[in-house]
């Protein structure tokens, strides 16, 4: 990856690059706001809910950006990631609340936000040029290359991603909620199942509440507010 080009385009930013690292989230902890950490490979990539993020060498964007904490940051970062992919490749992604960026029903990118010491670390993982996935991920994950059938430039996506993140994090909460709702086929009118601590909730999505949580209307007419992930299209 042409990190020097990225540094030339964004001379005011600290951009750290590691050929291999456990996780860019760890490397970004303690850096000043605006700093970016990138890796070619992660040996212990972190996903949400303690899961691993598949981070094979030379195939993905593994990026952590240090930001100021703000409401609905995860939703803003999903919008920024989809925006950058669209600008760089023309591919239009869907957003699955709260943190999944989807292409043709499969996950192509994920967002992980960790807040500590008054800063938010925005972790963005994008499956760019993966030619395949391990069997346990193959039915759920895709890459831009698998989707389009041709290699994709990771640097072009990064060149679009950093300004996109800057733009979306400047927006107010109401604007982010409106943009997310209009960009996501999952936000309203979608039949879903949601894994909750006390079982599976099934219903139809009915928009986001003012805090950015997902409303699921069950068939008995009652609403459940979903505050953490686990949303799947019903029947998938
Ligand atoms: C998810 O969908 O579960 C979130 C995945 C976030 C993965 C990215 S890759 C860059 C950064 N470093 C990590 O260890 N995780 C995030």
Q: How would you describe the overall organization of this protein?
A:
With 236 residues, the protein is an alpha+beta fold. Helices cover 28% and strands 31% of the residues. The protein has seven helices and twelve strands. The strands form two sheets. It has a seven-stranded mixed beta sheet with strand order 1-2-3-7-6-5-4. It has a five-stranded antiparallel beta sheet with strand order 11-10-9-8-12, with no helix packed on it. It starts with a helix and ends with a strand. The mean pLDDT is 96. Residues 23-25, 42, 45-48, 51, 53, 62-64, 99, 110-112, 123-125 line the site of biotin (BTN).
The average pLDDT is: 96
In percent, how much strand structure appears in the residues? Answer: 25-35%
Give the strand line-up of the largest sheet. Answer: 1-2-3-7-6-5-4
Q: Would you tell me the structural class of the helices and strands?
A: alpha+beta
Tally of contiguous helical segments: 7
Apparent shape: globular
Task: Measure the end-to-end span.
Answer: 36 Å
Topology diagram in text:
Elements: H1 3-9, E1 15-18, H2 24-28, E2 36-39, E3 60-67, H3 73-89, E4 94-96, E5 100-103, E6 106-116, E7 119-127, H4 135-138, H5 144-148, H6 154-169, H7 173-183, E8 188-196, E9 199-208, E10 214-217, E11 223-226, E12 231-233
Parallel strand pairs: 1-2
Antiparallel strand pairs: 2-3, 3-7, 4-5, 5-6, 6-7, 8-9, 8-12, 9-10, 10-11
Helix pairs in contact: 3-6, 3-7
The structure holds biotin.
Biotin (BTN) is lined by residues 23-25, 42, 45-48, 51, 53, 62-64, 99, 110-112, 123-125.
């Amino acid at each position: 990856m042409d990190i020097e080009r990225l540094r030339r385009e964004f001379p005011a930013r600290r951009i750290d690059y590691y050929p291999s690292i456990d996780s860019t989230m760890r490397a970004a902890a303690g850096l000043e706001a605006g700093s970016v950490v990138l890796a070619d490979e992660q040996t212990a990539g972190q996903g949400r809910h303690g899961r691993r993020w598949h981070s094979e060498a030379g195939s993905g964007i593994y990026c952590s950006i240090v930001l100021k904490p703000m409401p609905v940051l995860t939703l803003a970062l999903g919008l920024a990631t989809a925006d950058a992919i669209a600008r760089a490749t023309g591919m239009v992604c869907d957003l699955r609340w709260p943190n999944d960026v989807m292409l043709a029903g499969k996950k192509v990118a994920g967002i992980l936000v960790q807040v500590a010491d008054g800063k938010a670390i925005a972790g963005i993982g994008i499956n760019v040029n993966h030619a395949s996935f391990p069997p346990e991920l193959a039915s759920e994950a895709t890459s831009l290359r698998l989707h389009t059938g041709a290699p994709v430039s990771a640097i072009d996506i990064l060149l679009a991603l950093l300004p996109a993140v800057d733009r979306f994090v400047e927006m107010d909460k109401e604007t982010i909620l409106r943009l997310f709702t209009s960009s996501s086929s999952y936000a309203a009118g979608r039949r879903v199942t949601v894994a909750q601590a006390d079982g599976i909730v099934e219903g139809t999505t009915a928009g986001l509440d003012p805090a950015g949580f997902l409303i699921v209307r069950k068939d008995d007419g009652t609403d459940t507010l979903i505050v953490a992930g686990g949303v799947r299209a019903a029947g998938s």
